[in-house]
UniProtKB/TrEMBL annotation:
Signal peptide: none annotated. Residues 92-174 form the Transcription regulator PadR C-terminal domain. Residues 7-80 form the Transcription regulator PadR N-terminal domain. Pfam families: PadR, Vir_act_alpha_C. This is PadR family transcriptional regulator. It comes from the Bacteria. InterPro entries: Tscrpt_reg_PadR_C, Tscrpt_reg_PadR_N, WH-like_DNA-bd_sf, WH_DNA-bd_sf.
Amino acid sequence: MALEHAILVSLTEQAATGYDLARRFDASIGYFWRASHQQIYKTLARMEADGWVSATIEPREGTADKKTYAITDAGREELTRFTAEPSPREALRSDFAVKLRGLADVTAIVEDTRRRRADHVERLDRYEASAKRHYPDPDAVEERERGAYLALRGGILSERMGIAWCDEILDQLETRSDR
């Protein structure tokens, strides 16, 4: 997947300025796809040149003009093409897994695992709060919201798995007598 596709998905939900898109990435999409504000603006310019998005400019006095982007028919076609492609399995590239495999310093791994677990708990809390706020009745999720709901559920399940893995690591490493 390219950043372009994450932006197209966001623009199918609502037209937005580059600033608004950057905020969406910080608040939700960024949990699954990271991009700096600069990357978003550069990509929007390229997407506009490719005809995937169009921009309307609203002149403002005393400040920069407001440029709002919307997905075009060509952008929807690209998103449809992208969606139809089989998704490759993401390769696990993890410094933590390499450190764990080597287990050169058990105390450092235990400390790192505790930090990772706390991060998973924090993210899980945010995801669950978002699910409760936006989808109080999972059986009543509207069709247009289903993709966002399922992506959020994937995040929730991933964080739960991360917590369980950290718990297993801590259980194994903290109960060993030969530390």
